[in-house]
Amino acid sequence: MVHSTTHSSTPATWKKDPGLRFRMILTTFLLFALYIFFLAAITTYFDVGLISMAAIFGLFSLGQWYFSDKLALRSMGARIVNATEYPDLHASITRLAWQADLPTPKIAVSSIQTPNAFATGRSKNHAAVCVTEGLLRLLNEDELEGVIAHELAHIKNKDVTIMTIASFLSTIAFFIVRWGFFFGGGRNNRGSAPIYVAIAISFAVWILSFFLIKALSRYREFAADRGAATITQNPAALASALRKISTGISMMPPGGELKSQSEMNAFFIIPIRKGFIGKLFKTHPPMEERIERLNELQYNF
Question: Which is catalytic among the residues 151, 221, 263, 296?
Answer without folding.
Answer: 151
